[in-house]
Amino acid sequence: MSRDGSEGFSSILKRWVVSGLGVWLGSYFVEGIHYEANSTLLIVVLLLGLFSAVLKPILVLLALPFVVLTLGLGILFINALLYLLVGELVPGFEVVGFGAAFWGALWVTFLNILFGSWIGGGGRSSFTVRASGGGGGRAKRPTRKVKAKDDVIDI
């Protein structure tokens, strides 16, 4: 990341664009999701981003046994709950029921996975793995960079 933080901000903007595209496609393809104006869509995307950053980690922690038991698919239900919550809070954005929220959240999740490498930035870190050589007189093995994967699917 650069010193001025522009790479991190760029990543946030890209994430908002992808989420906005996901909400737009969800409203287009999923029966039961509607928004009135583009300004409403902007508010929905900002609120989804805020909820994903603040509420989602808490919900995942509270539902950790369920998430583990479903091999991570429980996170889709948490995403749907956040989508449904935004539908209740934002006037002009209507989410009819949990089924519509689930499919809408699935659109956003799918696009986040699809554009994940383009978004890049936040949440990805790297560390060095050094192979231990048993003897003191042996030549050192080369080190290699290992990137940690961002396993969380977020809206």
Gist?
The protein has 155 residues and is mainly α.
What descriptive keywords fit this protein?
6 helices, 155 residues, two-stranded antiparallel sheet
Verbal overview:
This protein has 155 residues and is mostly helical. It has one domain (6-123). The chain contains six helices and four strands, in the order αβαααβααββ. The chain has helices at 6-29, 38-62, 64-69, 74-89, 98-114, 116-119, and strands spanning 33-35, 93-95, 126-129, 144-147. The strands form two sheets. It has a two-stranded antiparallel sheet. The protein has a two-stranded antiparallel sheet with strand order 3-4. The chain is globular and about 60 Å long.
N- to C-terminal distance? 23 Å
- How much strand? 5-15%
Helical content band: 55-70%
Largest sheet, order of strands side by side? 1-2
Number of strands: 4
SSE inventory with pairings:
Blueprint: H1 6-29, E1 33-35, H2 38-62, H3 64-69, H4 74-89, E2 93-95, H5 98-114, H6 116-119, E3 126-129, E4 144-147
Helix pairs in contact: 1-2, 1-5, 2-4, 4-5
